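During the no-cost extension, the postdoctoral fellow (Dr. R.K.) reprocessed legacy sequence entries with the updated structure-token encoder. One reprocessed record is reproduced below for audit purposes.
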Amino acid sequence: MPRSSPTSNACKRRRRACLLLGALLSLAGVEGATAMAEEPAKSLEERIDRAESRTAIADLVHAYARHIRHDEPDQVAALFTPDGWFEIRDGHPDRPDYTVRERLGSPAQIDAHLAPNKGKPHPIPLIHNLTVTVDGDTGTANSVMEAQIYGSAHKVIGEYRDTFRRLDGRWYFASRTYTIFKGGSSL
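Re-encoded structure tokens follow.
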């Protein structure tokens, strides 16, 4: 029986570790994780940073939804970069045309928009189909959000398209665009 070289064994162990990491991330709901773990051109440190970044970005998306759900609008602006913005649109899930409802050009404007709504009927966001990509200190995400407006008969469904930037080791929204799907929403 031929013996494997120590180098060959190390490569096999590293590949198994990467596939295990990909499987764990897939189980955690990080889309594309298995393909990410198989990228041979990246160092292990780069792949770990990318995996941790994807998880941190997914956590940021869910933190935003949690603050809205818990009626904590005062916590939302801190999730954005100093030049971050948020745009709300009306559109369709299968066509590129849209109408801008409102553009909030800074965290202060985001806060001013949300603050008066504290204690009023608010969305209970459910985030679906979250996909995250990372390129160094920037990232993008796409997800579907549907929500019942707590305290009312209204509901909303639409799509988020987000960009992110890492500042001082922490991820923030650089932009959020939410397109409300007209046919599926009562707002």
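The chain has two domains: 1-41, 44-184. The two ends are 70 Å apart (CA to CA). The remaining legacy entries will be reprocessed before the final report is submitted.
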